[in-house]
Amino acid sequence: ALVGASPSAVSAAAWAGSTRWLVGSMHEHSAYSDGWPGSRPFDFYVSGRGHGLDFMGGSDHSDSLGLPNSFNAACLDPGEAAYDPLQPGCVIADTVNPADAWRKWEATGQQAAAASTPTFTGFRGFEWTTDRFGHINVYFSREWTNAKSDGGYLTMDGFYSWLTDSAADGVATFNHPGDKKLSTSDPGYNWNDFAYVPAADRQMVGIETYNGPSDFASPGAHGGPPEGWYAHALDKGWHLGPIGAEDLGHDRGDDWGGPGQPKTIVLST
To answer: Model pTM?
Structure first.
């Protein structure tokens, strides 16, 4: 069960009776999507491990998984000070093993396993991104899907059907509620206003109450209702744990797993 989101790092896992509090970070990016050029998932897993975390979940955007390049602003936006579309890590996202840029999903799983130890678990995920309904992270699934190809700008039905069928082995989290939208008056805003889908309830396990330093759960935060987005989602019927998400990797100086960003706590037997 996901039981806590901390606005700052916890120094070490602690035992509480017969259960263990595991501390980790969620929602990390590399040049495999829009992270800074030259980074790869192995980098954020090793960084999290080095900071003494128990686990880390990566989530590069699935829009990018089938393409070899990086979508960082330094590769795409002429207005960026570091803009250079030909710099290493832009055209071919992986500068360590260029062949992996053509197989990002498989390579991410291998890099997560390579970084894992008996005291640290790196696990693979992806961020499903539709700027109409909102973003969702999926972890542990064998497969991935893309909102641009599964109808994710027209309806949520395709995603939930995929999650409960093709990705029945995965779990998912609602990301930064209130942030991604065409309009707050669009009926699709915030995943159809958190419309409850009983078939997906077992797999929708969390909601970001922190994303980076920003609080997404307090009353009124990010356009939320008086009870806040977290309570609102629970009132709709979902059974969700709070997620402290880092959402790091976009800037060259980002410190994945460091003490300056929120962490997620998992209570485990």
So the answer is: 0.93
